[in-house]
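User:
Hi there, any thoughts?
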Amino acid sequence: MGATENNELEHQIIETAKQLFIEKGFAETSMSDIAARVGINRPTLHYYFRTKDRMFQAVFGSIVMTLLPKVQDIIKQDLPFIDRINRILDEYVTLFTENPDIPRFICGEIQRDIDHLFATAKDMQFDKIFLVIKDRMLQEMETGKLKKVPIHTVFMTFYGLLTFPLLAKNLLTHIFLNDEADFPALMIEWKQYIIFHMANLLYHDKEG
């Protein structure tokens, strides 16, 4: 099997594992389930991922590694904070509209075993990226560029506004949209309201 075929199979395994974790949860998904869904045997699966935890890291990494480094780079830019929020939202909306099950997967793992999720994030050094973002925000609050707002309030406001439409996608589509294909446009429209609420939360005046 060539390198390209290896990479394609590894990608297929990760995507399949992600779907099973979403459907059944990490604890209820076995390596045999993943192998059967992919159409390979257990030894082949173990060649790529020796344990289910390694598999979970790969799934989690495939989601977060495409996003958090970009967020970290954006937050460091010398731009008004709301402009950085706009760029960060572009990254999130793109990722989540292409992969709408990701918020459900993350929320499911938060409820199932937060310690396991945190341990995985720490092993992959995602906590350091969040620390950079937190420290940058606190610095700008101390210098008066932003209002002093509890970080947990910023976190809940941003992620609450961002993730609810994704978690309620089926409901919103059924009530407000003609077709599921219209959902990305709805998210782009909603992005402007997220920016509006974040500006009201963080700026001393609406002009920033």
